[in-house]
Amino acid sequence: MIKFRRYVTEQVKIYHEFGRYAGWPANYGIWSWENEIVVGFTVGHHDSGGGFHARDRSRPFVGMQARSLDGGQTWEVVDTPCRAPGGKGLSADEHMQTELGIGNPERQDDAPVPCPGVDFMHPNFALMCARSGLRAGAVSWFYTSQNRCQTWDGPYALPSFGQTGIAARTDYLALGPADCLLFLTAAKPNGQEGHVFCARTRDGARSFDFVSWIGDEPAGFTIMPAHVLLPNGRILVAMRCRDRGERDKGTEKNWIDLYASDDEGATWTYLNRPVEETGQGGNPPTLMRLSDGPLCLTYGFRNAPFRMCARLSDDDGETWGEEIVLRDRGGNHDIGYPRSIQRPDGKVVTVYYFNDVPDGERYVEATIWQP
After folding, report:
1. Are 158 and 140 in contact (CB under 8 A)?
2. Is 197 within 8 Å of 213 (Cβ atoms)?
3. Cβ-count burial of 60 within 10 angstroms (0-12 exposed, 13-18 middle, 19+ buried)?
4. Which backbone phi and psi does 8 adopt, to 5 degrees?
């Protein structure tokens, strides 16, 4: 028996076009300034025979960006205003045939270059990470903006940190004008996904140093970290986890784990498992602290009944409440990858991708809800 609690929610379509596949906001990021919200995602073409994800690998994906000026009630969608290596789609190589992807960004026009320095505390600052792949050989880079994502500067190079590959999604914690932590994923020594780690810059993103692994090297993978900073200085990081079972044999297990650091990321302690199961293929978390104190974890659940979920914690992540259903009636497992922000009025805007029927388009949607 599934135990869950339903909240009053409002669903708002952000991008839904006939024949198109829109997905994976968690790969790109969400940023907000009071009621102004910006979220990134990618768009390709739908193909019911596309495999686990119903996308057409023979056609290109392109980066997209949506902006709301009214707290998520209405949205304007544009191409992501940045220079991608080779003019290709960002962070989508694994969803296209090889010749359509970025591949090695250093061999493309607009290859990543060293960052000249940024002010992480600028009031309109944003940072977005990008990558060429998921496993050995993956190269990552980043962009910065000081005008609320109206334009992006970059691409700026990230080091390999001595790893076989770096698969960066957007998750960063600014500690000062020139000081910032990045939470990233490295390919494992065997070349497979993945192991979460923490990196740091103290010179405005001109250089980065490896700081620490978050947890031991997994038998399967740990990927897609999402952090929150508590008032006492503790940093929590939730991450998407998988064992090394086989999906087609029903032996694969996916869940979300939570780690804590009390020394600005130098060392980490395992806390607990807020979500015991996220369904076939798994789904990443997003983590935030609400204005009245509780922590909020949002994620997708990829087994039937397919749904978007949240859990709250009133004790800084030591324990977690029952599942809150934000959106249900998904057509199949091809949903999720959320990012969430809280509006000034206290409502939460959770953005994710979704589908209504297995053969239907994948689209990007927001649920607006009151915790």
Report:
1. yes
2. yes
3. buried
4. -70, 125
Spatial distance between the Cα atoms of 65 and 222, rounded to a whole number of angstroms: 27
Instruction: Supply φ then ψ for residue 305, to 5 degrees.
Output: -80, 125
pLDDT, tens digit, for every residue of 298-344? Answer: 999 999 999 999 999 999 999 999 999 999 999 999 999 999 999 99
State how far the alpha carbon of 191 is from the alpha carbons of 106, 133, 266, in Å: 20, 12, 25
Q: How far apart are CA 79 and CA 84, in angstroms?
A: 11
- 366 - beta bridge partners? 12, 351
Express each pLDDT in 133-161 by its tens digit.
Answer: 999 999 999 999 999 999 999 999 999 99
Q: Say how far apart CA 205 and CA 115 lie, in whole Å.
A: 6
3-state SS of the chain? CCCEEECCEEEEEEECCCCEEEECHHHCCEEEECCEEEEEEEEEEECCCCCCCCECCCCCCEEEEEEECCCCCCCEEEECCCCCHHHCCCCCHHHCCHHHCCCCHHHCCCCCECCCCCCCCCCCCEEEEEECCCCCCCCEEEEEECCCCCCCEEEEECCCCCCCCECCCCCEEEEECCEEEEEEEECCCCCCCCEEEEEEECCCCCCCEEEEECCCCCCCEEEEEEEEECCCCCEEEEEEEECCCCHHHCCCCEEEEEEEECCCCCCCEEEEEEECCCCCCCCCCEEEECCCCCEEEEEEECCCCCEEEEEEECCCCCCCCCEEEEECCCCCCCCEEEEEEECCCCCEEEEEEECCCCCCCEEEEEEEECC
Q: Are 148 and 36 in contact (CB under 8 A)?
A: yes
Confirm if 302 and 281 have CB atoms less than 8 A apart. yes
Single-letter code of the amino acid located at 308: M
What is the DSSP-derived secondary structure letter of residue 46? B
